[in-house]
Amino acid sequence: MKKWVLKAIVQKIISYLPMGNKINYLFQKYITKGVYLTDEYFYDRLGHARDHLNAGHAHTHTHTHTDFPKSCLELGTGWYPIVPIGFFLAGAEKIYSVDISFLTSKERITTTISRFVDAHQKGVLSDYVKVQEGRLAILLECFDNIEELSLEDILRKLKIEYLITDARKLPLPDNSIDLVNSNNTFEHIYPEILTPILKEFKRVVNKEHGVMSHFIDMSDHFAHFDHSINVYNFLQFTNRQWRWIDNSIQPQSRLRIDDYRHIYHQLGIPISEEKNRPGDVDALKTIKLDERFVTKPLDVVAISHCQFISKMKDA
How far apart are CA 112 and CA 126, in angstroms? Predict the structure, then answer.
């Protein structure tokens, strides 16, 4: 049995169990080894923080980089708050992390902070984030006193607030967020949920100088660890078949880039800049595509990753 099939079966079973997210964490920690904060993952997410900030600076009309962003919101931060801490170092005064479950812990945030300290000591942190005066000292102080500090103390010092809530109904005022972002999260949200989430983002983002920046990974996530399949493997299944394979622990919508463009257009959210990874059409041709995808241009279906940047003043 292929590894991806085995994982799909296990996650399907876990999805029906009470405390499924915690059980899945233990499964990934001890079986698949997928929850450890590797250098690859840390610097990938730190690169996302850099690219979000660069997008904001490029598309806002504030006069200096220190003016932006004052307030940030990330959807689906997950176990390790790398992007929020990057925003803190860049000078953000209020950083919200929105998720349906509280996935971090003191152990995980300690691990995250230690990676930032290591990046600083190696002299590479400044390659990713322009650290504002005084912010690194606060982070280092947290690290030096980590045993005495509670998780709540650490989050308060780093100006991070977790909102464990339905992202379709955020407890935030209109026009209150400078930078709304997500990192490989949209692909886990089906369109009937993603559409009202984006509508809510449009409400809370500042219409004068606010920016939305979202990274979307449209590849088959089972291919990330099972190299016997390619990143288009899941496009062969009918919707009915995929409902049996997919699970609520790590759902995959299988939306392609034209589907996301359509949702943005429906909501009147501009795509001010779009950065795409073109993918591999030859690899795509090895898959017998389901009729849902076969009518689309191959070069559209093949796009595996993208970043949508929206300057809200253009809306």
Answer: 17
Where does the chain show beta strands of DSSP type E? 71-75, 94-99, 160-164, 179-183, 211-217, 273-277, 305-311
Scanning the structure block, which residue is given the tokens 């904060």? 37
Token reading at 155: 């989050």
Which element (helix H / strand E) includes 239?
Answer: helix 239-245
pTM given for the model: 0.93
Whether 222 contacts 233, CB under 8 Å = yes
* Every domain of the chain and the residues it spans: 37-215
User: Phi first, then psi: what are they for 232, rounded to 5°?
Assistant: -110, 5
Whether the bond between 18 and the residue before it is cis, its omega within 30 degrees of 0, is no
Its CATH class, for the domain covering 37-215, is alpha beta
Between CA 228 and CA 213 the distance in angstroms is 32
| Tokens 């690290």 sit on residue | 143
Strand order in the sheet with 305-311: 160-164, 94-99, 71-75, 179-183, 211-217, 305-311, 273-277
Count H helices, E strands: the chain? 13, 7
Digit-coded pLDDT (tens) for 204-248: 999 999 999 999 999 999 999 899 999 999 999 999 999 999 998
- String of DSSP letters for 58-106: HH---SSGGGS-SEEEEE---SS-HHHHHHHHHT-SEEEEEESS----H
d(CA 263, CA 214): 14
